[in-house]
Amino acid sequence: MIELFHVSMRYAGADRPALDDVTLEIRKGEFCLLAGPSGAGKTSLLRLLFCAEAATGGQVFVGGRNLARLKPARIPEVRRNIGVVFQDFKLLPGRSVLDNVALAIEVQGRRREEVRERAVGVLKQVGLGHKLHQHAERLSGGEQQRVAIARALVVEPALLLCDEPTGNLDAERAQGILELLVTAHVRGTTVVVATHDPALLGGNRRVVRLEDGRVVADVPAYSPMSAALLDAARKVA
Ligand SMILES: Nc1ncnc2c1ncn2[C@@H]1O[C@H](COP(=O)(O)OP(=O)(O)O)[C@@H](O)[C@H]1O
Ligand SMILES: [Mg+2]
Questions:
Q1: Tell me: the pLDDT tens digits for 12-32?
Q2: Measuring from each residue's beta carbon to the nearest atom of ligand 1, which residues come in under 6 Å?
Q3: Which end of the chain is more exposed for a tag (fewer CB within 10 A), N or C?
């Protein structure tokens, strides 16, 4: 699903790269956490996968496409299969919570009732069933974040990219969001989550740890060693 070969990325004017010689494969159907301290390059990596930034070196493949060779006109095609929960999530102001989520699938040409039904279903799952008709900008930060998550999930994307999806949420809500991500994963979505939330990092899941733009640890899920390795990785943190 995702392959990076010796990828580097440097922002214009930056004195050091945000990503430095990153080689990484994330297979279809995997649930992969990106960990690491602030400034490690987690957000940059997700933005690269969403074609919001371009690599300055190496190669990035998403869904078999070489992003370096992708014509700008084809970017929407790649993005159509990707759900994103980024930190600068932009909800449409002046539109209801329900509209914000329904619009994400209306473009798929589905029947109006079906669109509504699915949007309501996902909003109930994120705990916003009682706020369907409220304007998006009247919600708290945490609630807006849950709308953004619902909007990403409702399209049932092949790939889901989440940047600190529990950043504004309390522990209980964070756990609820994790469960939603796991549900999407179980249904077949490949999930990549950048986080430094210990609640998310605690499960038996693959953790790729970045530091200064480099991969410094890659701990697979379901290996008998992984609990011990995770502990060790946390101590290093
Ligand atoms: N838009 C930008 N312009 C210049 N430098 C940036 C920009 N965004 C991030 N950086 C730098 O790139 C590095 C990686 O940042 P980022 O990917 O946001 O890390 P993380 O998400 O792990 O906190 C940091 O040194 C950060 O200061
Ligand atoms: Mg970040």
A1: 999 999 999 999 999 999 999
A2: 11, 14, 18, 36, 38-44
A3: C
Phi first, then psi: give them for residue 60, nearest 5 degrees.
Answer: -125, 125
Distance CA 18, CA 43 (A): 9
CB contact set of 29 (below 8 Å; sequence gap of 6+): 1, 185, 188, 190
> Ligand 1 centre from 86 Cα, in Å?
14
> Could you give the CA distance from residue 136 to residue 81 in angstroms, rounded to a whole number?
25
pTM: 0.89
Per-residue HEC secondary structure of 161-181 comes to EEECCCCCCCHHHHHHHHHHH
Mutate to test the pocket of ligand 1, among 43, 86, 192 (most ligand atoms within 8 A of CB): 43
State the DSSP code for 52.
S
Q: Are 104 and 151 in contact (CB under 8 A)?
A: yes
The answer to whether 202 and 228 have CB atoms below 8 angstroms apart is no
